[in-house]
TrEMBL record:
One of its GO terms (cellular component) is cytoplasm. InterPro entries: APS_reductase, PAPS/APS_Rdtase, PAPS_reduct_dom, Rossmann-like_a/b/a_fold. It is an enzyme of class 1 (oxidoreductase). GO terms for molecular function: 4 iron, 4 sulfur cluster binding; adenylyl-sulfate reductase (thioredoxin) activity; metal ion binding; phosphoadenylyl-sulfate reductase (thioredoxin) activity. It catalyses: [thioredoxin]-disulfide + sulfite + AMP + 2 H(+) = adenosine 5'-phosphosulfate + [thioredoxin]-dithiol. NCBIfam families: APS_reductase, cysH, PRK02090.1. The gene is cysH. The keyword Cytoplasm applies. Binds 1 [4Fe-4S] cluster per subunit. This is Adenosine 5'-phosphosulfate reductase. Its EC number is 1.8.4.10. It comes from Domibacillus antri. Pfam families: PAPS_reduct. Pathway: Sulfur metabolism; hydrogen sulfide biosynthesis; sulfite from sulfate. One of its GO terms (biological process) is hydrogen sulfide biosynthetic process.
Amino acid sequence: MITFESWNDAQAQIPDFPADSETKGALETLRWAYETYGEKLVYACSFGIEGIVLIDLIAQVKPDAEIVFLDTNYHFKETYETIDKVKARYPELNIRIQQPDLTIEEQATQFGPDLFKTNPNKCCEIRKIIPLQKALAPSTAWISGLRREQSESRANTNYINLDKRFEKIKVCPLIHWTWKEVWRYVTKHELDYNVLHDQGYPSIGCAPCTKPAFSMDDIRSGRWSGSGKTECGLHTEA
């Protein structure tokens, strides 16, 4: 088994997933990942459009898979509504809501109000990074919906990656999917998705830090607009 600790010696065990298959290697990657890691594999899902595709693919491989949602308590109501729809469509999935240690009020007492404005990196650390670290603690590997097309920082993502921040193996089945292919899949299979996608939000995070995208050439341009921040930290090295 490929683990964080055995990565250097075990990389040769990674199969060559077929990027030209019907799902561009996604189903093949998921089958291998669940066969390899079983209950030690978890999907950390934000319930954006890529997440909707992955959930549908995962349900075909492991209907009772564990899915973790990081509830920062700052999400749009439409995001919570999307989760309810997914639960209804895939009742066997084990969808777990991971909360931060601090409520918004407790965070404001310690760090001042609206930390997402004064120190967005610290806010992400408290409400996303630390909760995911706790959620992943029992796991050997986790699944992410990263696509190479999403941003320059994600352009070199592989199907199977060494995650130095969380000291896990990170599985990214959708690396070769384009934005159009994601939407084509959702439309073909009539999947429920966050309605904010229809209102100019290609990438959806916390409500205070997410605006409609300026350009579809950069679908993450609406995240932390004007702050110089481009990532929450979940996908950057510690």
